[in-house]
Amino acid sequence: MSEEKSTYKDQHIIIDVFMQNCPYCYRFQSQWNELVDFMEAKYNTGDKKQVVFLQVNKDKVSYLVRKYGIRGFPSFVYVKPNTNANVATKF
């Protein structure tokens, strides 16, 4: 997540960690898209984005899964700005 740390360090980050072929992950996809559309329209107006949304396959970010103790899928992680991804809430 080193690239994300530098690129998004002063923004709120919401990460959707999904598992390939997970029926629950695919079932949630339309709600995820609605959330992203709503939040971007509300908080990402003008030149600066306040909120960044990332969607990642758990097999490609195993370090992230370990770091945040993710056990079920889909899982969502909120990372506070300016914390080097060390202050996060998992839900």
Report on this model:
This protein is an alpha+beta fold. The protein has a single domain, classed as Glutaredoxin. The protein has helices at 2-7, 23-43, 62-68, and strands spanning 12-18, 51-57, 75-79, 88-90. The two termini are 19 Å apart. Mean pLDDT is 86; it is low at 1-5.
Unreliable spans? 1-5
Our measurement of the CA-to-CA distance between the termini, rounded to an integer number of angstroms, reads 19 Å
User: Which structural category fits the helices and strands?
Assistant: alpha+beta
What does the largest sheet look like?
4 strands, mixed
Measured by DSSP, the beta-strand proportion falls in 15-25%
Helix content: 25-40%
Total helical segments: 3
**What's the overall geometry?**
flat
CATH topology: Glutaredoxin
Radius of gyration: 13 Å
Instruction: Please write the CATH class name.
Output: Alpha Beta
Which CATH-level-2 architecture?
Answer: 3-Layer(aba) Sandwich
Question: Order of strands side by side in the largest beta sheet?
Answer: 2-1-3-4
Q: What do the pLDDT scores average to?
A: 86
Name of the CATH homologous superfamily: Glutaredoxin
Structure summary, number of beta strands: 4
Number of domains: 1
Order of helices and strands: HEHEHEE
Features:
91 residues; alpha+beta; Glutaredoxin; four-stranded mixed beta sheet; 3 helices; disordered N terminus
Summarize the structure.
This protein is α+β, with helices and mostly antiparallel strands. It has helices at residues 2-7, 23-43, 62-68; strands at 12-18, 51-57, 75-79, 88-90.
